[in-house]
Design brief:
With about 230 residues, the protein is an alpha/beta fold. The chain has a single domain, classed as HUPs (Rossmann fold, 3-Layer(aba) Sandwich). It contains 7 helices and 5 strands; from the N terminus they run βαβαβααβαβαα. Strands 3-2-1-4-5 form a 5-stranded parallel beta sheet, with helices on both faces.
Length: about 230
């Protein structure tokens, strides 16, 4: 068997527009990509089916783990709308103060740590996640300071073998949608809704952000929303 000479990379794949586009970008950049999705007890567990569909379309292997689900009771104690059903999902614009109810405490640290373990196991030299500039006001674990310091920690933990990258960290969601269009990402397969229904609700913060990004990018939105008002 001929071994691939491409560098290995892991992409945290939620099944949303951002991570799906990142997966396609790394594949375009000639990485040998492995996708990783994590069940951590999220309300919007529907996203994991989207991740599977996107990975299948891209022709990349998908590793799925439910190890994070054991922490769901801890996450729920922080009154996050995204784990459990005790807190309602806020509707409105993604950048609104109310969106802080969607924070899952230290989620990205957990997910990236799992990715770090997988990277060592399969000799991947890059871990990529799709934090973007629009995430910064609400989510501390999507800011440049976070992933720069975690990249340094990965360097210590792996003796320099693994690097963490966030290629979308300084661009907008609309920029990502425009890039997805060029890369022919199957956007109709992606899923972003915080409510977790079969269709996008059209009202939660991430649905509002998704709609807005397609409009600003000038790309046709293939998403079916329950709330059809524009």
């Amino acid at each position: 068997m001929i071994r691939s000479t491409k560098p290995n990379a892991i992409v945290l794949l939620s099944g949303g527009v951002d991570s799906s586009t990142l997966l396609y970008q790394l594949a375009y950049e000639d990485y040998d990509v492995t996708a990783l999705s994590v069940d951590y007890g999220q309300r919007h567990v529907r996203e994991l089916a989207a991740a599977e569909a996107v990975a299948h379309r891209a022709g990349v292997p998908l590793m799925h783990t439910a190890v994070g689900r054991a922490l769901a009771p801890l996450f729920a104690m922080a009154n996050s709308s995204q784990v459990g059903r005790q807190v309602a999902v806020p509707f409105g614009h993604y950048a609104a103060e109310t969106m802080k109810a969607t924070i899952v405490p230290n989620r990205n640290m957990l997910l990236l740590s799992i990715a770090g373990a997988l990277a060592e196991a399969i000799d991947a030299r890059v871990i990529a996640y799709a934090a973007h500039a629009g995430d910064h006001p609400i989510y501390p674990d999507c800011r440049p300071e976070f992933y720069a310091s975690l990249n340094e920690a990965f360097g210590h933990a792996t003796e320099g073998r693994v690097a963490l990258v966030a290629p979308f960290g300084r661009i907008t969601k609309a920029d990502i949608v425009a890039r997805a269009h060029v890369l022919r990402v199957p956007l109709a397969l992606t899923y972003s809704c915080y409510m977790g229904g079969e269709q996008h609700c059209g009202r939660c913060g991430t649905c509002v952000e998704r709609r807005e990004a397609f409009q600003l990018a000038g790309v046709d939105d293939p998403t079916r929303y329950e709330d059809v008002a524009r």
